[in-house]
Write a structure and sequence with these properties.
Sulfur reduction protein DsrE, single chain, 5 helices, five-stranded parallel β-sheet, alpha/beta, Sulphur_relay_DsrE/F-like, DsrEFH-like, Hypothetical Protein Ychn, Chain: A, 38% helix
Length: 120
């Protein structure tokens, strides 16, 4: 079984370097052929909305919208159920291809054989 990464990003524009690190690792893994499941939680939840990744800027960093697009094309992106609810975000609001799921789904993903979970 190929190694898989489940990456939970908790930071957004409030901690731009930590946020970018999560997206950068996810993008690098996709390019390397590693399976990726990226979880948007906390302040990164806003990046599930159209146009929000384009607003994120960090010097010397790949554009967040490009990294998100790479993960959407080659992996899976999930928005945390509770995080979405706290921000008034519904499935009708999010970018096509992003699902909304909660802790039971996250636990199911990270407890599979061959999975490495990372939290940023």
């Amino acid at each position: 079984m190929a190694r898989q990464l489940v990456i939970k990003v908790t930071a957004g524009s409030d901690a731009p370097e930590r946020c970018n690190q999560a997206f950068n690792v996810a993008g690098a893994a996709i390019v390397s052929g590693v399976g990726v499941s990226l979880w948007l939680t906390g302040e990164s939840s806003w990046f599930a909305l159209p146009g929000r990744a384009e607003e994120f800027k960090l010097a010397e960093a790949a554009p967040l919208e490009d990294l998100l697009a790479a993960v959407l094309a080659g992996g899976r992106v999930t928005l945390c159920t509770q995080c979405a609810a706290r921000r008034g975000i519904t499935l009708d609001d999010v970018i096509d291809g992003i699902r909304i799921a909660g802790a039971p789904t996250f636990v199911e993903e990270i407890t599979q054989e061959g999975v490495q979970a990372l939290v940023y």
